């Protein structure tokens, strides 16, 4: 009776150990489901991003995989221990004596037969447990392969994420440099705008000065025409003066001739006077000739006076014309001075325009340099973007592989759950068999 009680207790303890080994699988599955729900809620609310959610899911999968492997090992160890214990019970010497007792018709024989039935049933349970153990071993191997693939995918994903992070940092640096260049371009554009405004003001001043210069030049042209007319009048007066002078010269020659003749007549009169003595008739002839010459000299003198009067009048006209020319020349000089001042202003404005143009040239060179650097930065950003796109593609592909791996883990987990349910069923059968043995033992008591 004590042996039968020990066997029933042993069977009951075996079932309890197996049940305790399988129960954590259900707890792990429950925790995994809750974890998935929490991560999805945080992701939907925007508390975490996709990368953090992926890391959390990866950590969960790794932890669950480790726990599943540990539980599978523990279950296998428990099942092997239970199987070994059953074999020892069947191979003991007590089993030989039990054959004799089973042939008895009393309560002891019934107890032995009941124990044998329970043992046979338990043997079937142990066989099922062995099959389940093999399946768990296969699942463990599948888990190992899955987690190897998962580690490889995570390694490549980490490399891609690291490359994306480095490229992102490089992009940020390039972006900051491009921003600085854009600020420089903005300042250059502001400087160019100021220079353009200065050029506009200078252009307005130059236009105004040109207008004034044009007016002055027109006046100078008018004054030049007036000067030309005045000079022509002076020339005409000079011609008249010359003509008068020629006439005076002619009259002077006539007077000179008359003077010569008068002198000759005087000489002749002297000679005749000396020769005639008493003869005075010759003096009368000489006197007549002298009178005629005197008349001619008087007429010539009147002509000279007339010519002198005309010459004086012409001289007065010449003086007036000269005064007009002088006034025109003075006015022309004043206008020329004004023109000189205007052109000085124009020169200053031209100098300012030149400085502004030089400043614009410098700003344009700076803009060109900034544009070249921005172009190089954009090329670098494009290269980084291509690398990020390629890394993102790799990450996406690995995420797909990881999804497939997770699906495989899910299927393997479902298989583990199925095997665990079968183990639980076997444990319940073992517990029922132990309960029947216990009940028979109580009846015997």
Descriptive overview:
This protein has 445 residues and is mainly alpha-helical. It has 5 helices and no strands. Helix 2 runs antiparallel to helix 4. The N and C termini lie close together (9 Å). Mean pLDDT is 66; it is low at 1-19 and 82-91.
Distance between the termini: 9 Å
Q: Any idea how many domains? A: 2
SS summary, helix count? 5
Query: What sort of overall outline do the alpha carbons produce when their principal axes are compared?
Result: rod-shaped
**Can you give the mean pLDDT?**
66
N-to-C SSE series?
HHHHH
Beta-strand share of residues? under 5%
Sheet bearing the most strands, described?
Answer: none
Short note summarizing the structure:
The protein has 445 residues and is an all-alpha fold. The chain is built from five helices and no strands.
């Amino acid at each position: 009776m004590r042996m039968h009680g020990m066997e029933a207790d042993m069977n009951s303890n075996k079932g309890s150990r197996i049940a305790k080994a399988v129960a954590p699988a259900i707890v792990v599955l429950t925790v995994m489901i809750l974890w998935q729900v929490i991560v999805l809620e945080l992701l939907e609310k925007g508390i975490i991003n996709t990368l953090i959610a992926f890391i959390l899911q990866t950590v969960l999968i790794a932890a669950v995989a480790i726990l599943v492997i540990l539980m599978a090992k523990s279950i296998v160890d428990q099942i092997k221990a239970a199987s070994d214990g059953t074999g020892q019970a069947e191979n003991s010497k007590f089993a030989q004596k039990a054959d004799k007792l089973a042939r008895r018709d009393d309560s002891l024989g019934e107890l032995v037969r009941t124990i044998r039935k329970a043992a046979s049933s338990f043997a079937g349970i142990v066989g099922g447990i062995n099959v389940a153990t093999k399946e768990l071993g296969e699942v463990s191997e599948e888990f190992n392969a899955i987690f190897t693939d998962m580690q490889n995918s995570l390694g490549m994903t980490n490399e891609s994420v690291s490359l994306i992070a480095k490229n992102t940092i490089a992009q940020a640096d390039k972006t900051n440099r491009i921003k600085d260049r854009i600020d420089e371009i903005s300042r250059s554009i502001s400087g160019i705008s100021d220079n353009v405004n200065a050029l506009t003001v200078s252009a307005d001043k130059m236009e105004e000065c040109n207008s004034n210069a044009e007016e002055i030049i027109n006046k100078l042209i008018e004054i030049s025409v007036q000067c030309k007319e005045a000079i022509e009048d002076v020339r005409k007066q000079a011609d008249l003066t010359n003509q008068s002078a020629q006439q005076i010269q002619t009259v002077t020659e006539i007077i000179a001739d008359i003077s010569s003749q008068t002198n000759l007549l005087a000489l002749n009169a002297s000679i005749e006077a000396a020769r005639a003595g008493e003869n005075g008739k010759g003096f009368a002839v000489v006197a007549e000739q002298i009178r005629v010459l005197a008349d001619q000299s008087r007429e010539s003198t009147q002509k000279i006076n007339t010519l002198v009067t005309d010459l004086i009048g012409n001289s007065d006209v010449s003086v007036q014309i000269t005064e007009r020319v002088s006034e025109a020349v003075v006015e022309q000089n004043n206008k020329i001075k004004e023109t000189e001042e205007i052109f000085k202003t124009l020169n200053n404005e031209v100098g300012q325009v030149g400085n502004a143009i030089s400043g614009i040239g410098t700003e344009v060179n700076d803009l060109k340099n900034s544009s070249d650097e921005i172009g190089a930065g954009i090329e670098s950003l494009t290269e980084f973007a291509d690398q990020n796109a390629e890394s993102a593609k790799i990450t996406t592909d690995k995420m797909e592989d990881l999804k497939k791996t997770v699906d495989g883990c899910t299927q393997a987990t479902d298989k583990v759950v199925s095997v665990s349910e079968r183990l639980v069923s076997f444990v319940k059968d073992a517990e029922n068999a132990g309960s029947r043995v216990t009940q028979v033992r109580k009846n015997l008591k």
